[in-house]
Queue: 4 jobs
Job 1
Amino acid sequence: MRDHYHLYGLGAALVDMEITVTDRDLTALAVPKGVMTLVDEQRQTELIDYLQDHLVASKRASGGSAANTVIAASYFGCKTFYSCKVANDDNGRFYLNDLAAAGVSTPDLRPPQGITGKCLVMITPDAERSMNTYLGISETLSKDELHPPAIAAADYVYIEGYLVSSDTGRAAAIELRHRARDAKARTALSLSDPAMVQYFREGLLEMIGDGVDLLFCNRDEAMGFTGTHSLEGAAQALQDYCRTFAITCGADGALVFDGEHSYFVESPSVKAVDTNGAGDMFAGAFLWGITHGHDYETAGRFANLAAGKVVAQYGPRLRPEQHQELKREFFGS
């Protein structure tokens, strides 16, 4: 009997370094606030050198948007598989070990020489995250990293929108959507970041093709992608691109659409200290919910609870034990 996966993910492999900074630091470094900016290794080194005094409390963690989502889904109880590309260096080994510790399956990788991708995540006092990413070897992620047996055995495949910035990554995402369709697996895609929507909209349209089953985005991404000026307008327009969707609205809640009915689910009241990973956690919790028998409204409420826990602490992910604690808190068992 072949393996079965609730979720197969495709995305960049990035080792995150999270640092607290001030708005003055961002201005001095000319770092755009609240978005992900792609940089080369020299620029990232310049940023790290400037922030040397901030690095004392920094932490290293495996990251990348889709990876955060897949790891969250795995800790909640999904059987998961992740395709990515790391180099044969210390960060690459750290990354693969971190995935394995979270119960995420990967292909039998023999990493090539190169540099594993790195993301410098700068958190300001208002809890906003500003990311500067050096993709490293992840920039060459391609169709070769896809794992057809796992795709065929998955309920859902999940594609991060960040792949649109790489020609080979975008082609891999499109190939994954085709393979998923052939295998009758459902397709989920995240728009990932307002900058991706602003600068790579045509590429995102290629990745979406004739439509995906489930689209994740936040309110700004939804309006930017559809060229609308309200949540209601964006929700109506998104139905041209997907069968169902979830639009996160931060502290205001989330709007989920199951193909027939829309539900607005409130967010818990929390003091946000770090919004990094909130959308990724929402997607992971939501995908766990809908692959384990819960309807969209229930999955949305649970996902909001999980995202609220993430923003109330530093780092893009919950501690392993917090996932089961959340399930007990929400479902009562």
Job 2
Amino acid sequence: MWHAHLVTLSLPDRITHVLLDLDGTLTDSAPGIIGSLRSGFASAGFDVPSDEVLRTFVGPPLGASLARIGLSDADAAATIAAYRRDFEVRGMFDNSVFPGIPEALAELREAGVTLLVATAKPERYARQIVEHFGLDGHLAGGLDGVHGATDYAAGEAQGKEVVVERAVAHAVALGADVGQVVMVGDREHDVHAAAHNDVPTVGVTWGYASPGELEAAGAVAVATTPDELRKLLTS
């Protein structure tokens, strides 16, 4: 479980490495995820939650979301397995890159910022999605720059802080000073996972957060457009 650090994080004077969330930050993945969740609940023999509830599942580790609505570990495992069967054949690419994101990533690279992805999504799915939409060309090491949950069962339950830890280690291996690394994400779990690793988060409003969620979680700044995000990260 995440515990608040006593240190107060702020936006660095100079940002050299940026960790990017995937769902709700780079891509609008909600249609495919929600559709596959509906199929997963039904196939596993459970009542399908409302779309409003299912939308809250987009971004956080899936195991944590299922636990939050009261499913046992066994029932959650059955639902995740059914969800993945549908997601792999249908839901994964019922998805789109948010307008302005490719341009913002290209401009960040031109400004000398190193980009990596840090997502709670299983890594093999994340890499397929990043490659499908041609976003790997913006990342350090291409698809090697995509960090996601590695062990399916444990990875989706253990929380995003472990993924962020690995992404920060990659950034350091590339020459980063941790004090110049920033997370970008659209949900509170992004902010908390980054803070666990002493990394500040810039929140984005075009994803799936509730009003005020990012500010309450401790985001050091909030961008309302990809171009505003680029300016925040390069100013």
Job 3
Amino acid sequence: MGVNNLTYSKSGLALTELFEGDVLTAYQDQKGVWTIGYGHTAGVQPGQKITQLQAETFLLGDVGTAVNCVNEAVEVTLTQAQFDALVDFTFNLGAGNFEGSTLLKDINAGDFPAAIAQFKLWDHCGGVVNAGLLRRRNAEAAEFAGSTSSSSTPANKS
């Protein structure tokens, strides 16, 4: 059981919005998963269209799942910036990947330098390094470390 009961900050939400983008018509992501809004995938169908309000509603629901996962899985006290970085990571990669990761094991062991290095290992899509994912992981690592990253501008969806 986690020791944190944090909420996702506006800064964290801005990070997720930046990297997810906002597309109101369904598209297939790099792995072929139908996606809409800010990276929402549940029940998305080809040709589906949503409003901006629906995109924001989906985002808040999807982020809520990541928030709950991080609060429950992390067994050490986090700063807001560390929490935000982990929620974005979990939002992007899924709760199962976060819960089974060496990143989480390092955090729970209190080895934050090792955890920071772990972010960058999650930059592959389809077995190859993806520049957008690398930028996102670098931004998350910088957020977790408490510094800002000038490389947080996405070039494509991740």
Job 4
Amino acid sequence: MLLDATWRLSRPLLFQLDAERAHRFIVGSLGRAPRLAANLLGAAALSPAPELACKVGPLHLRSPIGLAAGLDKDGEAIPSWAALGFGFVEVGTVTAHAQDGNPQPRLFRLPAHRALINRMGFNNHGSAALAARLRRLRESGGWPEIPVGANIGKSKVTPLDEAAEDYLTSVSLLDELVDYLTVNVSSPNTPGLRELQQRERLAPLLEAVAARSSVPVFVKLAPDLEESALHEAVEVAVDSGCAGIIATNTTNTRPVEDPLCEEAGGFSGRPLWPLAHERVRQVIEAASDRVPVIGVGGVDSVERAQALLDLGCAAVQLYSALIFEGPSLVSRLNHGLAASSGRAG
């Protein structure tokens, strides 16, 4: 496949760059000419088999494989992700106020483990800038035929007691421009953010967002919550009218030994799989079919994607695996899922 050959040639060069610089080079390049990039990628990628189409709550997906938040924070390359074969795309995390994020370096590769550590700190241009970009994309006819969601977080400068209004600012700007919203209360890189997963803070926040939003609202939870806390957060999400739950975010734990594990930040990638799988199982158990669950964490193969779907996930998301497996991973997952079900085209 052309994508495989291109990736094999470019990966050694990209991995010589600082991780964040390589990230910006890729996303920025795709964003400078999004329609051209999408056309080129679409010609090289395989479209999902029609039989992979599914639903996550009210959302209709052409594939259960989605792009997780974090890769395209400011929605620069949305047409390209659709062209690669994703069934849905989540941009962000975006905040009400533009912010630079944490000091660099703040993104680290662990190639031997196919893992990342990041302490980006919600660096983004703000909800208003994202809204303007999304509006231009819609008006230009470049909006993809798949659901696009926005992951929203709390601005660092906003006190926890004022978090709801901060999130609602993003909701008011993005509500009619995206297909769904995800409330991120689980990043480990904004001080105090994970406290919003506690019932007394989470319930009023989700109720306020759900009441203000005209699109489905999801909530993203951390893998570091104990089972009882996860169950409680699921109950709050259901009672607040959320359309679904995304489990899980990055972890503060270190499932491998590596010199870079001394770096602060959220750990993601292949070694997250055992923890993420168990937490997803617990969330599905707590949800009891009342709301759909999207599984995230360590998904880098057909077998792992299928395992989450077999567990009861309505769909899965990935991000870190793209860094190590390359852009053709999406086509391989789509084809593999169809083949494993005897539905390959």
